[in-house]
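Render this sequence as a predicted structure.
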Amino acid sequence: MSTIIVLAGGTSGEREVSLRSGAAVVQALQTKGHSVTMLDPAENFLAQQALVQAADLVFPALHGSGGEDGELQKILESWRVPFVGSDARASALCFDKWQYKQYLLTHGILMPRGELVDATSFAQSELAKKPFVLKPHTGGSSIDTLIVRDVAALDTAKVADIFARHPQMLLEELIDGSEITVGILGEEVLPVIEIIPPSDGEFDYNNKYNGRTQELCPPQHIATPVQESAQALALKVHRLCGCRDLSRNDFMVTKDGELYLLETNTIPGLTDQSLFPKAAATSGLSMAETAEKLVFLALARA
């Protein structure tokens, strides 16, 4: 039995999802007999140094800035506390989608064409004249992500509102096709999940959590060779970025079977509705077994 601190909550826009992930991890590890305490880094985390250092392990279940961007990992590294997940460098690389894109393009990974834009350069960009995706270059859960298929019907007020919150955004060409995701657990590649948004919507923040999106594992519309290629590519990207323990890698698949990498999540959602636990379950691992495996992977480095 280990003494484990689960970190959940935080101050990002993904706080509520993080609290749900943290609760799921706590329950899973308690099922396995571990002594688990949940702490919220938003509540004077630095003052909890002694408590954190007394634990055998920290399990971050934080999403967004302050949890996935490497800042928390820097603190834990400076405290010499073992923790689940990627180190500060890999976390920072994957969190900044623009930096991440530039790095992986140098390794020949196929990704959508993109630009880092502000409100002025967005209006002038050639990419904005065709179907596009506009999303924060830091952050996740599809918060403030705009998917535009009909440029003529662009809601300019909504764009202005987004840029008021995010001075810089990542603008990418919209890849037409099917979305899939591939999780990595340790060095094991998990089964592919096919994501089918509702016919009248996109795979946005609301449709991720309202039950209207189909998540098929195994996929029904993705050829087996394409799935195998996606799994191999996910593991390659996981290793190129220096990720450890877990990641979830998102792709678009064109009708010709081409794979476009979208992003890598170093702390994917761990709620009962999240994709990573669903993939692990398909491979035969319960949530309790998945969480404990992550604990053992981290403790092996201690």
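Summary. The longest helix spans residues 15-31. The mean pLDDT is 93.
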